[in-house]
Write a structure and sequence with these properties.
heterodimer; A: 210 residues; mainly alpha; Rna Polymerase Sigma Factor, Chain: A; 2 domains; 11 helices; 63% helix; B: alpha+beta; four-stranded antiparallel sheet; 7 helices; 8 strands; 31% helix
């Protein structure tokens, strides 16, 4: 090797799918690379749903351990790795919130975030829940939903509430919660189609640069 | 069952599934349905793409540096598991739990009424007012009811009890705190609110104790008259009783459960 061997060109950087394949073979370095690529997004989402930093850490660890144990569950034909991992993180975070609801709320240092999660839906309440969102296009798309659609989606996705709980929180019939959620997701998908792979396994960009 | 128009009657459930927002009975139903429905599998997949965008758009924050070493150390001593993909594609989160058998037989479940009538909420509230003597204006009864429900849901000491029939079917969830409680009917039939009442029983003292009553008018959560003594119980049951008062003994226990969280 020559002394001034150049930095490998970008195109030689392994794709996420390459790394997952290597993880399937027990490659811990490939696993570490995936961790480094996605720990920030994973932790940020877990933090948003769980609020409590310790639970968020546990959720991230659980999600990455699940990746390590059975990397074959990621199917590149079904979508991008980021989508798969963030879905896994979200579901684990929601499970953690429900499992540990009592402890979680007690250990939050400031009640503000909890209060925000529990803000009674009303004019502006759901906007407040979105204050922290970055990623212009995603935020803009959310902003273009009707207030009612945005409310049910943010309560369910970021709040971790079941649709029954969303129904109780909003005073809406459960059927309305379901139909608004469905309509809102469909609209988001339409508005964000440029960010989405088109069902061909293309990686979804998550708004965070790598 | 899929319609010919490229849509499935379960598509709303599929979206709720991807959001991890379904109640247990809906989750059961969709778990049974998904393997045979390519449309709903696609709905789950495309919803996950959208929600991942939402999830990737929250304010970014680095995890603590120690977490990296902790994860890598754990990985180094954790064996990998053999994994055979299922012969059908499912939501990634679903397939993450191979130890839960995928049901292929649709469970029958009670029809759920989803209509909420504001007046019905006010009726329930009026009943609660009678029991507890709360000062509640009928004009903003619905708001008051919502506010009470929020108090229950937002209380750090809230407990959740899933009430099941003997065959395991969930029919209601009891949410309780030391001072307030609500019940969310999942599969309870609306009762005749002039001649019958649902009763919540506490089972932790050996003899069932009638704690509170409620009517089912739809799938909407109902506030219960509640106190700290009622909140002491760790096991609960519900029954449907003739008449409108709390009986000494339950005549027909529909479901029961223990506090789970």
């Amino acid at each position: 090797m020559v002394a001034d061997a150049p930095v490998p060109p970008a195109r030689s950087a392994p794709t996420d799918a390459d790394l997952v394949r290597r993880v399937t073979g027990g490659d811990q370095a490939a696993f570490a690379e995936l961790y480094d690529r996605y720990c920030r997004q994973a932790y940020s989402l877990a933090r948003r749903v769980c609020v409590d930093p310790e639970f968020a850490e546990d959720v991230v660890q659980e999600a990455f351990l699940a990746l390590w144990r059975t990397p074959g569950r990621f199917d590149p034909e079904r979508g991008g790795f980021a989508t798969w991992l963030l879905t896994l993180v979200h579901h684990r975070a929601v499970d953690a919130v429900r499992r540990e609801a009592v402890r979680r709320k007690r250990t939050v240092p400031g009640a503000d975030e909890v209060a925000e999660r529990l803000t009674p839906p009303g004019p502006g309440a759901d906007d407040e829940a979105l204050v922290g969102l970055v990623g212009g296009q995603v935020r803009e798309a959310l902003g273009r939903l009707t207030d009612e659609q945005r409310e049910v989606i943010t309560l369910a996705y970021f709040g971790g509430y079941t649709q029954c709980e969303v129904s109780a929180l909003t005073g809406l019939p459960l059927g309305t919660v379901k139909s608004r959620t469905f309509a809102g997701i469909r609209r988001l998908r339409g508005m964000l189609s440029s960010l989405l792979g088109d069902g061909d396994g293309t990686e979804v960009r998550t708004g965070v640069q790598r | 069952m899929n319609a010919d128009n490229g849509r499935c009657p379960n598509e709303e459930l599929a979206v709720g599934w991807a959001l991890r927002a379904l109640e247990p009975d809906d989750e059961h139903a969709l778990r049974a349905h998904l393997p045979g429905c390519a449309l709903c599998q696609e709905t789950v997949r495309s919803t996950e793409q959208v929600t991942a965008l939402l999830g990737g758009s929250v304010p970014q924050e680095d995890p603590p540096a120690r977490l990296r070493q902790k994860v890598l150390d754990t990985v180094a001593r954790t064996p990998q598991e053999a994994y055979e993909p299922l012969p059908f594609r499912l939501g990634s989160a679903l397939s993450e739990t191979p130890d839960r058998p995928v049901e292929i037989v649709e469970r029958s479940r009670p029809r759920r009424t989803t209509a909420l009538v504001a007046a019905a909420v006010m009726l329930v509230l009026a009943a609660a007012v009678g029991v507890l003597g709360w000062q509640v204006s009928r004009l903003d009864g619905q708001q008051q009811a919502q506010s009470q429900l929020l108090t229950v849901l937002g209380d750090p000491a809230m407990h959740r009890t899933v009430l099941r029939e003997t065959d395991g079917q969930e029919v209601a969830v009891l949410l309780s705190t030391p001072g307030s409680a609500a019940v969310m009917p999942l599969g309870l039939r609306p009762n005749n609110s002039t001649a019958q009442t649902y009763v919540v029983w506490g089972l932790s003292t050996g003899t069932p104790i009638a704690l509170s009553s409620f009517d089912v008018t739809g799938a909407t959560a109902q506030l219960l008259a509640w106190n700290s003594a009622a909140a002491q119980h760790q096991k609960f049951a519900i029954s449907l009783e003739p008449g409108r008062s709390l009986p000494a003994k339950p005549t027909d226990v529909i479901a029961s459960g223990e506090v789970t969280s």
